[in-house]
Amino acid sequence: MNEAIYNYDDLLNMLDSLLREPTEFWDDFYSDRTKPIPFFANKPDENLDSYFQKGLLNSGKALEFGCGPGRNAIYLVQNGFSVDAVDLSKESLAWASERSKELNLDINFIKSNIFNLEIEENSYELVYDSGCFHHIAPHRRMQYIELVMAALKPGGHFAITCFEEGGKYGGSDISDWEVYRRRNLQGGLGFTEEKLRQIFKDFEEIEIRKMNDVEDENNLFGTSAFWACLFRK
Ligand SMILES: C[S@@+](CC[C@H](N)C(=O)[O-])C[C@H]1O[C@@H](n2cnc3c(N)ncnc32)[C@H](O)[C@@H]1O
Q1: Ligand 1 nearest atom to the CA of residue 26, by list position
Q2: What is the model's pLDDT at position 2?
Q3: DSSP labels for 31-63?
Q4: What is the mean pLDDT of the chain?
Q5: Cα(96)–Cα(84) distance, rounded to whole angstroms?
Q6: Which of 4, 42, 122, 216 has the most CB atoms around it within 10 Å of its CB?
Q7: How far away, in angstroms, is 57 Cα from ligand 1 center?
Q8: Which atom of ligand 1 is nearest to the CA of 89?
Q9: Whose CA is nearest to atom 3 of ligand 1?
Q10: For the whole model, what pTM was predicted?
């Protein structure tokens, strides 16, 4: 392998190589569907539902990053969106497509790292991310924001849920530099409200709040250990 750094991509790839290779990790993570993982239940995020209840989203095309077993993609299709749902884990996508087939829904599942995606620019009404961004290393953040910006139509929405710092499901409070000293995201990065505002400052802020805690019996998913943010391009 040629280990020279000639351009920005070479630098990003070198930094990726210091950290965990994600595909194998996530395939293994989804190999046992009976694990008591809260987001394994087929229930959409309460914040996503609340945006619909408040009439904040126009239907159209949605792009979901790290769709996992498909619970939010399913909800979006059921609410009138046409959905491109991306994940790098074939195990998660197999589960998601089983679920969508059982419900007779048409979702375009794409097996890819989001950083290798070829998107149609300015074409999406919504980019949705529930729990993927906090697994993205800091050196990929600028590329992530460029991708969201490129995907969205002007006026389109970007919604994200992610770990708070030190939350009950994870959310490490290490600095961005410390990630590379430890060569590890410590199970996923945690964020403060200020940090999220700073990272996504190029978007118009519609709402930044904690997710609401939702009882297990409810048909929505929610935990106050996560931030829920809605922005507009
Ligand atoms: C915590 S899980 C959340 C899954 C799903 N969004 C949910 O809430 O049910 C994070 C997901 O992001 C995916 N993921 C992580 N990094 C990714 C990347 N760079 N590109 C595509 N998918 C990624 C993982 O495979 C995993 O399915």
Answers
A1: 25
A2: 84
A3: S-TTS--GGGSS--BHHHHHHHHTT----SEEE
A4: 97
A5: 12
A6: 42
A7: 23
A8: 25
A9: 131
A10: 0.98
